[in-house]
# Entry
Amino acid sequence: MIRTLLAISACLAVLGGYAADLTWLTNLTKAQERAKTDNKAVLINFTGSDWCGFCIKLDKQVFSTQEFADYAKEHLVLMKADFPRTTPLPEDIKQANAKLKTRYEVRGFPTLVMIDGDGRLLGKKVGYGGQTPAAVIEELKGWQKK
# Structure
């Protein structure tokens, strides 16, 4: 029984590591260039990574799953616009994130914004209510069909 539990734990650790391999860019220009090259959409995650409880839940319950990683690697260029309270950010990233927050009229965290490679808005959602990775992915797919 203990061996079985250890084997299951090892498998879960490997799967969790897989999802953690996602790359979140911090530069919108680079994200859009990659989106154009790869024919993908850009998903911008406006987050307060070190203080926003729902942002942390979204990261753990959705973004850190294999299901989301599989979808994102195929369809998305990921970008994080972070607004931490205790984690230092370089000044240029702080300023760029503030401009993006204004541009996309972000009023709460988390906010997800999807754009195409040319910057056209495809979808926007404020908040996270505990949706499953599958439900979040379905919503993102709907935005991409617009």
About this structure: The first strand starts at residue 24 and ends at 25. The two ends are 50 Å apart (CA to CA).
